[in-house]
Write the structure tokens for this entry.
Amino acid sequence: MDDNNYSTTYESSLAVVATAMKKARLSLDVLLLNSILGGMVFSTGGMLHLVVGASISPELLEKYPAILQILSGICYPIGLFYVVILGLDLFNSNILFFSCAIMRNAVSIFDLVISWLVSYCCNLVGNIFVCYIISHYSGVTDSENFYIAAQNIVELKASYSFVQNLLKGIVGNFYVCLAIYLQIMVKPMHVKYIMMVLPVFTFVALGFTHTVADMYMLIIGKINHSPIPLSLICWKIFVPETLGNIIGGSFFGIVLCWYLHIYVVERDQKLLHLPQYELRDEQPDLNQDSRVVRQKKPQFQEDEIDESSEESDESVLEELHKVKTKEKDPLSRINSEISDESFMTTPSNELQPLPFNRVTSNISNNASFVRRRSTTNSISRFKSPKNVFPVYGMGPPSARERKIAEGNDNTKFTFSANDINKNSAEYIGSQLKRMVTNKSRVSKRDNDLESAGMSRMRTNSRVGRRMSSLTPAYTYPAVSAIDISQITPTYTNNNRSGLVDTPEPNQATEVEQDLTEVSPKQVTCKNL
């Protein structure tokens, strides 16, 4: 068994956080399209459920009422599997991702509200499209058996009270989040499907509800002339199921994922001083679930270069010299190419993940070049982007992202000036906030500039009046050669008394030559 195909609960919970950070940085058009397609694809389970209900005879259904729930429990995992593999957005799974991520301070409340609201509305739009266009107008459900089956399902769901549907929604989405969580723990495609079948089959067979799954059944029931009014469907089914799904999914994400599998594990690691690891996302691409792997922190690596070590610098320069020598020698270059080809032909399952090592600031660019050429000590020159879970194969992340991944901010990395990467992802909440507040910011800036200009003018006039009232006057007698000893400083301000300090001797000699040809008049000097 390959251990790389399975993740621990700690790694899987951090993968939930990393996936939420990816979904938070989706642009609005991508989020809309993902959610609409997610609702369309997930309705596959509802269509199969309707087919099963229409295929069972009323006599058999009356004799064995649980047979419909058991058979429909096999149908809904198919739609969920399509959504997960295609990387689409589903309201119920987004509850898990964002409730866990917000406890980790990875996303904001604004990002959570936008994701939940957009995914819910667009999932509904996708189901409406499938019901009217794909099912109704195409004639797929245009038969008496489908009419009766759809009406019976709507009547059955409307027979429960508000509180009953609320409780059923809580348990239902708890199992859906469990299915999403279990499939994150595994990598093979067929194992992902099995991990999703078990929880989904459980809650559907037991009769619990799922708001997005019921969207297709309720809409197609109204299209097929169900006698239940639309207001009653919204109040007794949609509202309690949605609230219940939020409660159940948030409970799973906060209590199970965050508290038990992240907070408790990190608290125990800190208490027992267990080995520290760096958590990196090896699947940082959008529209797919993240996969977090761990690797030892730099301080545990034997080949780490210390910033205060001069011997390591010399060894790196010697290695650089060897590389240049080999490049000059044709035979050495051929041997190097052969070794590179042999390395590339090595099976991928035999390649071990390369540890991340920090780059010290006193290593030159040539030294970094040598480290990048080494197959046993490879490193990316660029830092992991901001607002992104630390990416596998890139440089050290920023403090916030490192704290999200590791739960603390004790590890200090040093990075050279040439290795700084200013790339940063922007979440959809920040984008919408900037769009909404951009006009108000411009007007506020103009008002601030105007007020600052008026304040500056008032300050200048006030300072001018004060300085003019404090101006010392010097009276020089009308002589051809000024006698500095005759200069008598006095204050012209009536509100002040006393004399100013007499000028220094060196200052007097500097002005003596300039005043030799001055005509008899009163000279005023202002100190600004």
